[in-house]
User: Fold this.
Amino acid sequence: MANGLGVFATAAAKFRGSWRSYLAIPLIAAFVGWFTNYLAVQMIFYPINYIGIPLWVKDGVPLGALGWRGIVPSKAKKMSEAMVDMVTGQLLSVEEVFGRLEPKKVAKLLNPMIETIASDNYNIPKKVTSQFSFLYSGVLSSFVRDMQKNIISLCDIRKCVVEQMMEDRELLGKLFQKCGELELKFLTNSGLWFGFFLGCIQMIVALFVENPWSLSIGGAIVGFATNWLALKWIFCPVTPTKIGPFGPFQGLFLTRQKAVAKEFSEFFAKNVLTSEKLFKSILTDETTKVNFFNLLKKRLWGSASAATLIVKELPNHLSAVHPYVDKTLALQPTLRKSMEKMSSIQFERVLHPIFEEDEFTLIVAGAILGFLAGLVQQAIATGNFTLMFWKRRKKQKLPPPPPALE
Assistant:
């Protein structure tokens, strides 16, 4: 009992002798928790381009020999492929969406293009070409119906999306940041109070343990644990789960399904699957543009020259069509309703993959930074910043032997 009281008395004496240093431990731990989580979030999205010495850089791998590229920019191809597979496999039917277009309406919007081509390239007066507008409308209407029947061969949604994400690697990051804004803020800010709580434990350990390495090791644990706990809190449990009489509990991201569905659908419809970008893909993709040309030539009674002229002039006249197509396809409400109906297990896959890809790297990075911060704490608490295993120990001088007895 006396020994136990002596331990507490020693700890109390240590605290009184250097109370400022010990109170600084949870404060520094709180900062370490916040900073490591903040850095983890930044490492997910930035830098867009590799920064460092390019001794060894592998495509799709964020960490180089001496440098780093954000996880999302590094894995843009893999992530965008998975995302578009989810969109086309679970959220919308390409055939059904394009089937909403009214061929006669599209033909009416494109009619001026045919008149211009006939007038400029075949020297037919516009007064004459306008008299045959019903004929042009019939051909265009039939062609639009042909497109709707063959839309899978004419529009490669997967390639359209992936090429956009590869061309602008920041675009995918913006989508994830918009959908996971609250979760990313939580990941950063939670490090502050997780770190403070663990820092209090770290301070108590330091008072009772003489080894100064307890601060450095504790710092590593704080950096590791704050990142790990925050990530788990965001996505676990996937389905509502009761713990005894409490709950049900569910990961923070999973509870925001309706809000995320709104953000995702708006971003995707306004920035990715727009009429302009869909038609650009149809007319420039090496595979789909051939299919488009052959289908058009067939509708023009095999006239390759007429089909060539229309394909050449079409991009200059599509601006009249885009507003109608965007409105009629109604991708935003379609994506939103479908995402709201996803199961929790399916919905978890919307955002979690960006963390999973290099989750271990992020957590280890937090542990390393926490360890370095622990060294600072060690210096504050002990006044000695020298690493113990680098410090040369002085040889102990033995006292002189007693004089020999005569």
Observations:
- The first helix runs from residue 2 to 17.
- Strands lie at 51-53, 63-64, 66-68, 241-243, 246-249.
- The two ends are 48 Å apart (CA to CA).
